[in-house]
Amino acid sequence: MAITQTRTAHLQAIDAAHHIHPFCDPKSLAERGTRVITKADGCYVEDSDGNRILDGMAGLWCVNVGYGRQELVDVAARQMEELPFYNSFFQSSTPSQIALAERLSKITPGDLNHFFFANSGSEANDTVIRMARHYWHLKGKPEKYKFIGRHLGYHGSTLAATSLGGMKHMHDMGSSTLPGFEHIMEPHWFAHGGNLSPEQFALRAAQALEDKILEIGADNIAAFIGEPIQGAGGVISPPPGYWPEIERICRKHDILFVSDEVICGFGRLGEWFGCQYYGVQPDIMPMAKGMSSGYLPISAVAFSDRIFETLNEGGPISHGYTYSGHPVSCAVAHANIDIIEREGLVERVRNDIGPYLQSGLAHLYERHSIIGEVRGAQALAGLQLVRSRDTREPFAAEDNAAMICRDICLEKGLIMRAVGQAMVICPPLTITHAEIDEMIDKADAGLREAASRLGLD
Ligand SMILES: Cc1ncc(COP(=O)(O)O)c(C=O)c1O
Questions:
Q1: Tens digits of per-residue pLDDT, 222-258?
Q2: CATH 3.90.1150.10 fits 35-65+344-453, yes or no
Q3: What is the pLDDT of residue 175?
Q4: What is the tens place of the pLDDT at every residue in 370-379?
Q5: Using CA atoms, how far apart are residues 231 and 226, in angstroms rounded to an integer?
Q6: 457 alpha carbon – ligand 1 mean position (Å)
Q7: Which of 56, 257, 419, 433 has the fewest CB atoms found within 10 Å of its own CB?
């Protein structure tokens, strides 16, 4: 009797034969078989075996309004019928680009009123680099071209964005670093704070920026870039006082301050943008992900009035992407912002589900000594897994503690992501109390089982 392959096995075999995945080891992916996600609704995704899984990662830090929004589908369909594409090069625009630029100017803080569109966070950050350097050229200071980022910072995967970020494994792959990029320590108190209080450590970590500026000379530096909370680095949230000090140092040395809002933007921290949560005002602000809740690819870079005035006087901008401001993506992003506003999702995170999620995580911390630290804020969180909380002893890399925990949680129907030795959580902003309870219950069971598998009880 012939044995027929299941649909999942069939898809997995084709995937292994023809599809190269980002950030995956192809061999082990092929051995284990890729997970095929077929549909999604609200905060749940469904795989090709019919398992319904609570998506604690909002796709990839992006589905802020949740899955299954017919309104966004309708807007996209209408825009496709009317005008599926036109470019924004050479003196042309489309109504949806124009409307989105104006709309963004109403929600971005301070004088960030001018927007350049791209299609991904990586392209947005390449745009940041080119525009900041162009700005300093126009100011008569072409030698101000270097960027300072942070270890474990993530700004994307193009060559320039990889250089801007501080991920060593990415730098090492294919010698992917360009000259002109420097990195300072990440403000991770649990890892580097020693006996300092979090507040003392915040100033020490910010001082690393000034030390670096003095080392290479402010005259050679275009900008400092940081994520309000470092997402892909493991949800590293700086202690109080860090961001105002960083802003002060940038101003003192006349260095542009770039807040990468690709994860923290669009309500994640209970403000429209993460810099507002920390009370600082950047000069340049790349954004993506939650901008369209991932329904279509789009990103933007916001520039302050001061920078735009200079760019405006500087002649042609020799930069752009065919799909900069794709009309369908712009229409969907606009409708997505409508949803965030109409449903009060920013306030909901701040006053309701952010605190509710954080109290659930505090409960996990009380129950599981494998959690060394709960990090993050509002609807973005990380649980650092440790061998010993008291001594802050980490697991050895080969223990694979977070991966083990992640896989157990997945078996239980919860997607969390493992980053280094941390579990990270970033659910849709529409998540309900009952869904958060389910997430905490599943994480509770997953942590207990992981601790036991790792020999902690
Ligand atoms: C802070 C930050 N910046 C930039 C990027 C790159 O975005 P993309 O993957 O859309 O290129 C990411 C992606 O996770 C990110 O987290």
A1: 999 999 999 999 999 999 999 999 999 999 999 999 9
A2: yes
A3: 86
A4: 999 999 999 9
A5: 11
A6: 38
A7: 433
- Considering the four listed CATH numbers 3.40.50.1370, 3.40.640.10, 3.40.630.30, 3.40.50.1820, the one that applies to the domain covering 71-342 is 3.40.640.10
CA of 387 to the centre of ligand 1 (A): 31
Nearest atom (ligand 1) to Cα of 261: 1
For the chain, the structural domain boundaries read: 35-65+344-453, 71-342
- Does residue 227's CB lie within 6 angstroms of at least one atom of ligand 1? yes
Ligand 1 in reach of 356 Cβ (< 6 A): no
Long-range contacts of 321-324 (CB under 8 A, 24+ apart): 321/118, 321/119, 321/123, 322/87, 323/85, 323/119, 323/297, 324/87, 324/88, 324/89, 324/116, 324/117, 324/118, 324/119
Ligand 1 in reach of 155 Cβ (< 6 A)? yes
State the distance from the centre of ligand 1 to the C-alpha of 230, rounded, in angstroms.
11
Domains 35-65+344-453 and 71-342 share a fold: no
State if residue 263 touches ligand 1 by the CB under 6 angstroms criterion.
yes
What single letter denotes the amino acid at residue 43? Answer: C
Give CA–CA dist 45/40, Å, rounded: 4
Pocket probe mutation, ligand 1, options 127, 258, 268, 289, max atoms within 8 Å of Cβ? 289
